[in-house]
Amino acid sequence: KAGVTQTPRYLIKTRGQQVTLSCSPISGHRSVSWYQQTPGQGLQFLFEYFSETQRNKGNFPGRFSGRQFSNSRSEMNVSTLELGDSALYLCASSFSGRPTDTQYFGPGTRLTVL
Amino acid sequence: DAKTTQPTSMDCAEGRAANLPCNHSTISGNEYVYWYRQIHSQGPQYIIHGLKNNETNEMASLIITEDRKSSTLILPHATLRDTAVYYCIVRVEDTGNQFYFGTGTSLTVIP
User: Fold this and answer.
1) Whole-angstrom distance, CA of residue A90 vs CA of residue B28
2) What separation in angstroms does the CA of B106 have from each of A36, B18, B36, B40, B89?
3) N or C terminus of chain A: which is more exposed, having fewer CB within 10 Å?
4) How far apart are CA A87 and CA A108, in angstroms?
């Protein structure tokens, strides 16, 4: 079974631009979570989607948004990019998102904002 | 807020068992303990998880104390490829599906 895939793997943008990152979960998984990882803040939860609905959200500004499609694929969007948005963005999928479900992570998208 | 406490770093000799401790003194009765590891700039890799009983799989063993306030991840025969940051996570059930990763333990396996 194929793992979680994320595209693109690397991205360079400039301040003020917007960016869209994509995540394809493991086949059959309906929950997709997004995390941001920076050297200073570590791994931080952004949001989780299940059956096309945002079910949970972390403490990030409204510039960070996401959506999930009927095939469970998910996208996250960051508008008006700031230098501090440079990070590794990780996507994780699980079958239903219950606490007993294991989350499997993708390789991440490395975003650099200049 | 991370609900776990781990040592910042540890060393282990290649071929020896690596024992990584984790304190989760505020854990609730229905919260699972998960362990993940992250090799430099890759996505976190699932290792093992447990609720009350000790667990073992092909990668590691998880020992949870009877009061569930702490646990130990054991890599039985550490190799150089086990050098990574190891995260102990308590699933925060009352806030949905998110993981709080904390700062983890940086394990270095020494030849």
Assistant:
1) 27
2) 19, 12, 12, 10, 15
3) N
4) 10
Region A60-70 average pLDDT: 96
Pick from A43, A44, A102: CB nearest B46: A102
Give bridge partners of residue A13 from the DSSP assignment: A113
What's the start-to-end Cα distance of chain B, in Å? 36
pLDDT tens figures, B26-52:
888 778 899 999 998 789 999 999 988
The CA distances from residue B1 to A91, A93, B24, in Å, are 20, 22, 12
The shortest CB-CB distance from B98 to any of A56, A90, A105 is to: A56
Q: Backbone phi, then psi, for A35, in 5-degree steps?
A: -135, 150
pLDDT along chain B (111 residues), means of 10: 84 97 87 91 92 93 94 97 94 65 92 95
- Confirm if B69 and B24 have CB atoms less than 8 A apart: yes
Distance CA(B25)–CA(B4), nearest Å, equals 8
**B105 to chain A, closest Cα gap in Å:** 12
Question: How many other CB atoms are there within 10 angstroms of residue A41's CB atom?
Answer: 10
User: Residue B62 is which amino acid?
Assistant: L
| A21 has pLDDT over 50 | yes
Chain A, nearest residue to B46 by Cα? A104
Picking from A111, A97, A102, the residue whose alpha carbon sits closest to that of residue A22 is A111
**Residue B50 vs residues A6, A72, A76, B28, B30: alpha-carbon distances, Å:** 28, 27, 31, 13, 11
Q: How far is CA A49 from the centre of its chain?
A: 10
